Amino acid sequence: MVRIKNNYPKKLTGIFDTNKNTKELIIICHGSRGSKNSNIQKFLSKKLNKKFNIFRFDFSGNGDSEGKLEDSTYSKDIEDLLKIVNYFHKKKYVIRSIIGYSKSASEILLASKQLFRKVERIIAIAPRIDLFNTSEMRELKRQKEFFNKNKYYLFPDPKIKHKITLKYIDDIKKWENVIKHYTDKIPTLIIHGTKDRVVDISESKLFIKRFQKVEFVKIEKASHSFENELEELNKIISNYLEPRS
């Protein structure tokens, strides 16, 4: 386990799978209410470790990292990620790519201007683009009366208790839409499943219509979790990471 302090300071916990043949590094991020040990993160780490060093970590308030989940926001996650990037830069690793999934896919796109020149390329899997059209914001509409009274609501996740607070909602209002903050100066790949019922593929299609330099691959019949398409997902990512002339 590797533990890195963020700005608050809370310890971020990650697993560093080393490859003695290279100083190239891939950072893998998890989605909302996920962890470094979620299926996609563990699968990609194992596959990509054959060629790269891999670091997969928990954002503060998630998994084994310190902090409270209710304090997590897009802004705070981005701060955590930049701490991780700076940590490995100081250790002279070449960050070949950051892979984000769902919420963290949005976050690496939001942070693209800060990641430019520090990271060679970014890979966003099923990113949320319109942050007002996320599962948390849709649930807010259903629990609006309770939220207005108590300044929070509980997201209905059977696996984990997640209190969505006014701070979280205000942070979304600050960012609004990924398109407003992204720069296409950093090479980017977006991957999305055609059967995604959590983040519709139309989100990614709208994004690539605006930024035509961005590479886009759709995986037919894949859901948000890609549970039956993990091998295909890895193949797409591995091909994208191959050296280019």
In short:
It contains nine helices and ten strands. Helices cover 35% and strands 22% of the residues.
Task: Examine the secondary-structure arrangement and name the CATH architecture.
Answer: 3-Layer(aba) Sandwich
Low-confidence stretches: none
How do the helices and strands follow one another from N- to C-terminus? Answer: EEEHEHEHHEHHEEHEHEH
Q: Count structural domains.
A: 1
How do the strands of the widest beta sheet line up side by side?
1-2-4-3-5-6-9-10
- As a percent range, the share of helical residues equals 25-40%
Largest sheet: 8 strands, mixed
* Rg over alpha carbons: 17 Å
The mean pLDDT is 97
Find the CATH topology. Answer: Rossmann fold
Gap from first CA to last CA: 36 Å
Described by the principal axes of the CA atoms, the overall outline is: globular
Based on secondary structure, the structural category is alpha/beta
Tell me, what is the CATH class?
A: Alpha Beta
* The CATH homology group name: Alpha/Beta hydrolase fold, catalytic domain
Let me know the number of strands. 10
**Percent of residues in β-strands:** 15-25%
Number of helices: 9
Walk me through the structure.
This protein has 245 residues and is α/β, with parallel strands linked by helices. It has a single domain, classed as 3-Layer(aba) Sandwich (Rossmann fold), CATH 3.40.50.1820. Helix content is 35%, strand content 22%. The chain is built from 9 helices and 10 strands. Strands 1-2-4-3-5-6-9-10 form an 8-stranded mixed sheet, with helices on both faces. It has a two-stranded antiparallel ribbon with strand order 7-8. Helix 2 crosses helix 3. The radius of gyration is 17 Å and the shape is globular. The model has no long low-confidence stretch (mean pLDDT 97).
